Every structure is written in C-alpha cells, then in structure tokens.
Amino acid sequence: MTTAEPSPFDFKAVLLSGFLPAALFAIGEGAIIPIIPIAADSLGASLAIAGFVASLILVGELIGDVPSGVVVARIGERNAMIGAALVSVVGLVVCTVAPNPVVLAVGVFLVGLSTAVFALARHAYMTTAIPLAVRARALSSLGGVFRFGYFVGPFIAAGVVHLTGTTQSAFWIHVVCCLAAAVTLLVLRDPATGVRGLRRPSRASRPDRQDGGAADDATDTGAVLVQQESHGLFRTIAANRAVLLRLGSGAGLIGAMRAGRQVILPLWAVSVGLDDATAALVIGIAGAVDFALFYTSGQIMDRWGRLASALPCMLGLSISYFLLAWSGHLDARVGWFVGIAMGMSLANGVGSGILMTLGADLAPRGNPAPFLGAWRFTGDLGQAAAPLLISGITAVATIAVASGVMGVLGLVGAGVLLRYVPRYLPRRLR
Predict the structure, then answer these.
(1) pLDDT, tens digit, 9 for 90 and up, residues 41-68
(2) Which of 35, 55, 175, 239 could form a disulfide with 170 if both were Cys (CB 3.0 to 4.6 A apart)?
(3) Which DSSP letter does residue 343 get?
(4) 207, 128 in Cβ contact below 8 A?
C-alpha cells in the first residue's frame, strides 16, 4: 500500500482567506481609532473622559483575551472571526447612534471585545494553516496588514467625515469592513480543509496532525482535543505558567516598548516645539518605514531564527528611548527627534510579527487557541500598561525620565528573550 503524496501548499489561497479579512478589519479599526475621542468630545465629554472612552477599545481587547481562546477552540477559527465581525457591527451601530459619552463607551468597549476574538481567531488560523518553514514570513506579513490598515484607515475616515460633515459617520467605515470580512470568510473555501461557510472542520481533517495515523487514531485524537477545549484560559495559564511567566514577560515587555513608542513620540514632538502638521508628517513617515520592513522581519526569522529579529528590535527600541532622554537638552534636539523617530520605526519594523510568531511556535499544534489567548493577554497587558506608566512618570518627573525608564525596560526585555527563547523553543526556531 503506497502513501499518497501530500498536496502542495497553496500559499496564495491561504493569503487570500487569511489576509483579506484581516486587511478589511484592520482598515476599519484604523479608521475609527482616531475618531473615538473626537466623537466623545462632540457628545459633550471632557478631555479626560474622551481619553478614557478612547482607551476602552484597548481595555476591551485586553479583557476579551480572557474568553477568546475558549470561544475559538469551541466554534472554530473561521466561525469565530465571522461572529466577532458581526458583534463588532453591533458595537459600531451603538457608537453611531450614541446620544451621550456613556453609550458611546459601551459601544467602543464592545468593539474592543470582538476585536480580541477576531485577532485571536486569525492568529490561530494562521498558526495551523501555515507550514513551519514560512511561518515567520506569513505572520510578519499579517503584522504588516495591521500596519497597512492603521495607515490607510485614518485617511478614509478623514474623507468620509469631510463628505458627510459628521464625525460619527466614520464608524460606518468599520461596519462596511466588518460585513465585507464576514462575507469573505463565508464565500472563500478554507484551502487547508476544503470547508466553506460556517461548517467547522473536524480536527482529524486539520493539516496540523503530525502523527499520520489511521482513522481509528483520529477518533481518539478528536475526543482528547474536545476534552482539552473545555479547559479554558485559566487552566491553560496554570498548565503553561512557566513559559508564560518567563517568556511571556518578554512578550509583555515587547508590547510595552511598542505601545510606549506610539505615546512618547507625539509627546516628545510637543516638548521640542514641533507644530502639529510637522509632527504628524514626521510620525507618518516613520510609520511608513515601520510598515516597509514587515516582510524583511519574516525573512530574518525564517532564515536566522527568532532571536535574530527579537533582539535587534528590543535593543534598537531601548537605545532609541535612551537617545531621546539624552537629546532633550541639545540645541539640535529637533533634528535628533526626527532621526530617533526613524530609528525607532526601523527597530520596530525589524520585529514585525515577532509576538505572533513566538506564540505560534509555542502553541500546541492540535489546539492552539487557548494557549494563544493566554499568550496574547501577556502582550496586550504590556501594551495597556506602557501608556499609563509613561503618563504617570511624566506627571511626577519629566518625559526624559519616562523615556529613560522605557529604555531600561527594553534592556530587561532583551535579556529575558535571550535567556528563555533558546530554552523553550527548539534550536531550529531560535
């Protein structure tokens, strides 16, 4: 009895089914993020309340990480993405018709929750659908999709608001994008399983089975996985507490360094006296540099290992934070700011997709969603904490001190990654 040759991997089909919905969702999210505080202000919120409402999308994502792994494991990645897109539509409609900031806050929080489920489902789908040899390139490209959406979305929102004359009309952009993503997922066939629409493939038909056993083993494997799916996030955390505490702390520090960059660059532009238009131009060009490197990051990880991307990213960001702290008193501080902003983007771009790739490497192949939910929680926790840390230190000391503290955290994160990536990943993945 001969064994049939495995079918060749259809990379283009996976990109279409995995990246197109992600791109649509990212464009919609990128369109509403800068609009949320403006919409809150137009409804009568104070500056502080408007900032709080805007932060709820990130808080919703952080809290949404808790149940997302269980949801994805039980209903499947594609079904979870479709469901999350529809729940987002509900939240966005609430935002559109909100008569006051409280109702707007509810809608924004709901969008954040559904975003967490969509992101986790997409991550789990790519983890199981992409071969190991090209995993980093695929996941770093997925990170590039995020950057593309956040880059393009605000321009679309600006055009829609200009045409309609109402700020809240921008939420309809994300509604259209969510519905388009859901339709795309319903129409396109999963290239790995042949499943289309809401029907969930059996675990035995998944491409991530590595045992190559007979049909009898598939039944046993499926029963075990169903039992595993009921464990949920907290049992997953308990079972993987060592790696989540050690390497997960490195993931949290990566998230913190990246989120801190988005906060500290606009604040530093104000501190050195740049006008709004110039600051926006500098940060926009820096964002383009970041976006341009997403595939290069994947090539580095696939060819030379995960540390070859993670360490330059963390060390580059750390050095940039230190240079910001040092350059604040110089006469040429504006020029230094421009150069450092570009350097930060270069370092961040080199690490594009590193968190998703490390999570995919560490997750169980047969049932990755619960672990990925816990893993994403660590990164999102760092992202949520960094802006608060920078704001708090700036309030009690100076922005230079805040920048220096972030630089120290970057060095700590680089040390954690250098210590634990080789310990928890096989040599071929380092």
Answers:
(1) 888 887 667 778 877 888 888 888 878 8
(2) 35
(3) H
(4) yes
